[in-house]
């Protein structure tokens, strides 16, 4: 029997947009699925337009007074759509969807992905403990819990998230780059051109990167930024020697990756690091912080370099000594790693199998 799938999200921007585009395009034509629906905030979200997918919105901003109205809207939509499987993306959406199920005997099967556990972020010990308790309680109304990396799974076990419901499915993206040769961006071929892609917020470490380039960066290095503020805009002024390109449409992003020598990721924490595999897909070396899952994606000296955010002299050394030819070789190695582990085909096949198991059986144990 074909399944009806509902994806529920909070804000759909940046990495979540990339993830959804990948899985929705696949699920819209999958024979095991009868229909695909998406429910997301009408604020701070990219506009999705995918043939065969029904896109729905609820009115919401991340303010406490908006939580109850959001929960009511979401559960009205669930009642109307009547999905077989609800795939929930991110912590707040996870709270909104599962909270009402505590007061209902019957419910659809629920698959939950935090896309980065809140208790693994750089927050106080008290908040970590509170987030852990909340996630354990919500797990009672969850059938499968997807960790986007081994790092996330190991961290979740420290907070006693049910292992029997948990599995690891790394993020994946379409293997074929989409290159538009008409992109109007001219780079100085003499310079070492670096690209940052992501939200301008504290998690992504953009403030650390800008401060580094304000102080005394190598003269031959030029930094470009793709992205903007979404949740917690930090106070910053972009120096003249740095070029901000703003948000770029998802279908254009590969065309920008192609033009650069390397991609830089200075994140304070990272559940997975989608930008890293986007870079690897485009045969670009990655220069990243040694935080979160990034050391699993970036092998120092193989497909890029790692540096410590508390000791930026290592970043200075990397940028001072590395050569373009070396980065090209690393980019090719990264592409081989990407093909082996992080394609969208691998991601989508594993998700469909999770849905199928839940639809056909009664909570059989997950296999990691």
Task: For the structure shown, list the relevant keywords.
7-stranded parallel β-sheet; 13 strands; single chain; Rossmann fold; 6-stranded parallel β-sheet; 36% helix; 368 residues; 2 domains; globular; 18% strand; alpha/beta; 12 helices
Alpha carbon gyration radius: 21 Å
Which sheet architecture does the biggest sheet show? Answer: 7 strands, parallel
Q: How many structural domains in the coordinates?
A: 2
Mean pLDDT: 92
CATH homologous superfamily classification of the largest domain = Glycogen Phosphorylase B
Number of helices: 12
SSE-based structural type? alpha/beta
- From the 3D structure, determine the CATH topology of the largest domain: Rossmann fold
List segments where confidence is low: pLDDT < 50 over at least 5 consecutive residues: none
Q: In what range is the share of β-strand residues?
A: 15-25%
- The counted number of beta strands is 13
Summarize the structure.
With 368 residues, the protein is α/β, with parallel strands linked by helices. It contains 12 helices and 13 strands. The protein has helices at 15-27, 67-81, 91-99, 125-138, 150-158, 206-215, 253-257, 274-281, 294-297, 313-321, 324-341, 344-360, and strands spanning 3-9, 33-41, 53-58, 85-89, 109-113, 144-147, 166-168, 192-197, 221-226, 242-244, 262-265, 285-289, 304-307.
Structural description of this entry:
The protein is of the alpha/beta class and 368 residues long. The protein folds into two domains: 3-174 and 343-360, Glycogen Phosphorylase B (Rossmann fold, 3-Layer(aba) Sandwich); 192-341, Rossmann fold, CATH 3.40.50. Helices cover 36% and strands 18% of the residues. The protein has helices spanning 15-27, 67-81, 91-99, 125-138, 150-158, 206-215, 253-257, 274-281, 294-297, 313-321, 324-341, 344-360; strands at residues 3-9, 33-41, 53-58, 85-89, 109-113, 144-147, 166-168, 192-197, 221-226, 242-244, 262-265, 285-289, 304-307. The chain has a seven-stranded parallel beta sheet, sandwiched between helices. Helix 1 links the parallel strand 1 and strand 2 (33-41). The protein is globular. The mean pLDDT is 92.
């Amino acid at each position: 029997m074909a399944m009806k799938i509902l994806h529920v999200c909070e804000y759909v921007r940046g990495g979540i947009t990339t993830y959804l585009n990948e899985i929705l395009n696949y699920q819209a034509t999958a024979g095991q699925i009868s229909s695909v629906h998406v429910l997301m905030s009408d604020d701070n979200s990219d506009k999705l337009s995918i043939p065969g997918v029904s896109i729905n919105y609820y009115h919401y901003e991340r303010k406490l007074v908006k939580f109850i109205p959001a929960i009511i809207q979401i559960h009205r939509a669930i009642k109307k759509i009547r999905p077989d499987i609800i795939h929930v993306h991110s912590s707040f959406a996870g709270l909104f969807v599962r909270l009402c199920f505590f007061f209902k005997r019957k419910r659809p099967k629920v698959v939950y992905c935090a896309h980065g556990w809140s208790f693994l972020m750089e927050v106080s010990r008290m908040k970590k403990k509170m987030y852990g308790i909340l996630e354990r309680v919500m797990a009672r109304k969850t059938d499968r819990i997807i960790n986007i990396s081994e790092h996330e799974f190991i961290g979740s076990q420290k907070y006693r998230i049910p292992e029997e419901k948990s599995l690891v499915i790394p993020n994946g993206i379409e293997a074929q780059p989409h290159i538009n040769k008409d992109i109007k961006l001219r780079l100085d071929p003499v310079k070492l051109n670096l690209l940052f892609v992501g939200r301008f917020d504290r998690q992504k470490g953009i403030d650390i990167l800008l401060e580094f380039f304000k102080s005394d960066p190598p003269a031959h290095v030029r930094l470009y930024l793709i992205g903007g503020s979404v949740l917690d805009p930090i106070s910053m002024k972009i120096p003249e020697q740095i070029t901000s390109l703003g948000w770029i449409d998802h279908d254009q992003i590969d065309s920008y990756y192609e033009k650069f020598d390397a991609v830089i990721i200075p994140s304070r924490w990272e559940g997975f690091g989608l930008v890293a595999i986007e870079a690897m897909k485009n045969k670009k070396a990655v220069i990243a912080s040694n935080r979160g899952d990034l050391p699993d994606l970036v092998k120092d000296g193989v497909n890029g370099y790692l540096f410590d955010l508390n000791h930026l002299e290592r970043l200075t050394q990397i940028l001072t000594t590395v050569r373009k030819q070396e980065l090209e070789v690393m980019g090719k190695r990264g592409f081989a790693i990407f093909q082996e582990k992080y394609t969208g085909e691998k991601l989508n096949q594993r998700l469909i199998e999770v849905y199928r198991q839940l639809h056909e059986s009664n909570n059989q144990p997950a296999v990691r």
